[in-house]
Amino acid sequence: MEPVPIEERFPRPSVMGVVNVTPDSFFDGGVNLDPDEAAATARRLHAEGAAIVDVGGESTRPGSTGVTAEEELRRVVPVLERLGGEVPFSIDTAKAAVAERALELGAELVNDVTALRADPDLAEVVAAADAYLCLMHMQGEPRTMQADPRYDDVATEVAAFLEERLAFAVEAGIREDRICLDPGIGFGKTVAHNLELLRRLDVLLALGRPVLVGFSRKSTLGRLLGDPDATTGTAAASVGAALAAYEHGATILRVHDVRETVEALTVASAVRVPRGKRGRAARRAAVPLRHRARGGRGGRERPDRGRRRLPRRGRVRPRGVRELRLPSAGGARRRGRGGAPRPVPRRAGMCSGPEAGRAASGRAHRRQRRAIATVSAYCAATVAPRGR
Length: 388
Fold this sequence. Notes:
Blueprint: H1 6-9, E1 14-20, H2 35-47, E2 52-56, H3 69-83, E3 89-92, H4 96-104, E4 109-112, H5 122-129, E5 132-136, H6 154-171, E6 179-182, H7 191-199, H8 201-205, E7 212-213, H9 219-224, H10 235-247, E8 252-255, H11 258-271, H12 280-285, H13 289-292, E9 333-335, E10 341-343, H14 354-382
Parallel strand pairs: 1-2, 1-8, 2-3, 3-4, 4-5, 5-6, 7-8
Antiparallel strand pairs: 9-10
Helix pairs in contact: 2-3, 3-4, 4-5, 10-11
């Protein structure tokens, strides 16, 4: 059976659980070294709502060194064999040999933190299996990536990198509808870089592929909460980051705390109004109050915007009196034929500056007083006296 496009396999939002079969991962290193424990964790995460479980046998935390393909296979193969197709899983690897064996055991997706740069044979393996693929951005390598990372424009540079790797993958025979993209939170990025990427996720979405975000338990969250030496973040902060990523357009959230994240996303997606289906009231509610007071973004002041006004034909006036319009006292402007405003012609001897403003205001008020007198006389002449 041919796999469906990745957008259909992982509808937004989908949660990817994490199982690290390593002794030195930044958060859960050593917890799942026993194959039975790792398989039990994978089943639990799937039962809690994970659409897929990402199994990895090599740590990519900052400062880590790599392991051989043989060691990585020794760690992950017993776990994948125990799952036996019972739990949908992906393989977190940059090695073709590991990916090939995992795909044989039923892996659906290859999650490559090097975006097909580490092993030239990996693209061919993924294409041959017609598997899903996640391409991630990383500046440098895990051992050195956090040594003073710098960007001129982090969102634009990450998007340009992923666009180039996406083109490479498609040219290598991997179908574009099998690929998702990952900005690589914490991989060669400072706290400011990570937050900027999340705020400007739309730059990556413009590439036309689903975006996966892995902010779970990262040190950025701990440092945001006030610990400059934090190496991990809390569960609550991880859930908050997942919600923020979802609101900014992410499709897949890679997390350690699956149940909490799934519950939070369930509520957020239920409340969220789908794009393109917002009514007038919903669109107006989405405009910040400070903009509503000005009549929209960049609009002029409209203090009576929310006041209900009667239609012109429904307004009440004395019987027998035609509707008359009073001239405006708002400035030195006259109305021409048809009511269209036209500028006042400048005459010789007219003053300018503050004197011009005071003179214009005085003329406008004199016109208004004359108009009121005219209306009063008109009403006295046309309205029948009471008692007749």
